[in-house]
Amino acid sequence: MTLRGRKKGEAVPQGVVVRLPIYFRYLTELESAGVERIASAQLGEALDFTAAQIRSDLSYFGSFGQQGYGYNVSELLQQVKQILGLQRVYSMVLVGAGNLGKAIGSYEGFRKQGFDLKAIFDIDPHLIGNHHAGCVIRSLDELPEYLKENQTDIGIIATPKEAGQSVCDIFTAGGVPSIWNYSPTNLTVPDEVIVEDMHLTDSLLRLAFRLNERGFGGSSE
Amino acid sequence: MTLRGRKKGEAVPQGVVVRLPIYFRYLTELESAGVERIASAQLGEALDFTAAQIRSDLSYFGSFGQQGYGYNVSELLQQVKQILGLQRVYSMVLVGAGNLGKAIGSYEGFRKQGFDLKAIFDIDPHLIGNHHAGCVIRSLDELPEYLKENQTDIGIIATPKEAGQSVCDIFTAGGVPSIWNYSPTNLTVPDEVIVEDMHLTDSLLRLAFRLNERGFGGSSE
DNA sequence: TTGTTCTTGTTAATTATTCGACAAGATGAC
DNA sequence: GTCATCTTGTCGAATAATTAACAAGAACAA
Questions:
Q1: What does DSSP say about strands A194-197 and A178-181: parallel, antiparallel, or unpaired?
Q2: Pair (B80, B94) in one structural domain
Q3: CB contact (8 A) between residue A221 and residue B114
Q4: Is the pTM of this model over 0.85?
Q5: Are residues B120 and B66 in the same domain?
Q6: In A, which residues are within 8 Å of B153 by CB distance?
Q7: Mutate which of A23, A89, A211 to test chain B, going by most B C-beta atoms within 10 A?
Q8: Which residues span the domain enclosing B72?
């Protein structure tokens, strides 16, 4: 898994990490559409980035193109998958079987990329025992024991904000290396644990801000 | 709605837009907890930013603190609300009443901030007529007509990727100034339309990338 | 072949963002 | 009232990210 290219060893800028999944998504579409080759200029046009940025981003990981030709779509897609770590399978555990938790659990988008939801936990006695997304919903009390017995790559938190930190603590105590957090709170974790936040409300507030920034009228309260 | 402060007129950096909702969320927690004052150093400690960054961010919009004292929590929260545009009420329309759409529709987090879900549309005849989140689910065919009669601030797209662009087109044709997009596709919109993407899979791929970047072992396929 | 057109990967310049430092001014103890 | 302590808002330095430009080399047409 050594990374090639001139920038070997350098840290990958945040922006590159954000753009990689976008490249992945678009390349997947291109491949499905039967497109064989693409140049950075075309990619940039489609995704609204500069061609230089795309070439620069990819150069962190290697040289995947060819002068005078561009990139072979399938080959580049393969490389991007490799870069993102999609040659692996990831085991996931979900805590919180409310509306949001259920939606995440039954989302098809990542299951086919090798992200396997292995178990669901909740604290609500009414939900425990129900089936969802091919899993039985278990009591949160059983989570520490479960984590001892089952290697887990990603812990998903889809609880109200009050429970977010305590669930997170159970995950980190159980050795789960990464957290996908939908609970609207800032989690405190040991340095080595990776947290990826999905704060729905934050996203909506950014939208509201930009709406107002552009002098949008809107309805007054 | 004139913005004060030394940087008046300058564009607000992307990072500031990302951090504002985080400030909002934390200040709300502080106020609920009865905390009266806070210094940028403490805020930075709690949110893992530098104190200078927080002061710099706020300075884009005005001077809200006091030397030797810090910030009054309630007052600063009020200002941040104003900056984000939360003195307004926003009308929203949701397209897509699948698992994810339902979860978004019934999410309490933004309803209380003045984001009002007014109507839900779907294309599936089995769903049309059902009630959800206080709305009847209507046929997507009725959306253009609805938008003519009802001023709408935010269009929410929670459809599969195939339908994303066409729903987006209906929104923009209907004069909706902003889109909150959950469909896993890159939308093409006129310049003046604001798009805020929430791509669940992209987020998960960023997590996978960082997991691999740190030389995480994981399960091989 | 040969020459023209393309397009990459990389460098250097530009632009943007973050951060440390500090003067100015408020607070609060005595 | 006086002084030591805090803490802001801002400036300039340092760091980071983006972009334009171009040499090198492949593709393709004639």
A1: parallel
A2: no
A3: yes
A4: yes
A5: no
A6: 211, 216, 218-219
A7: A211
A8: 14-84
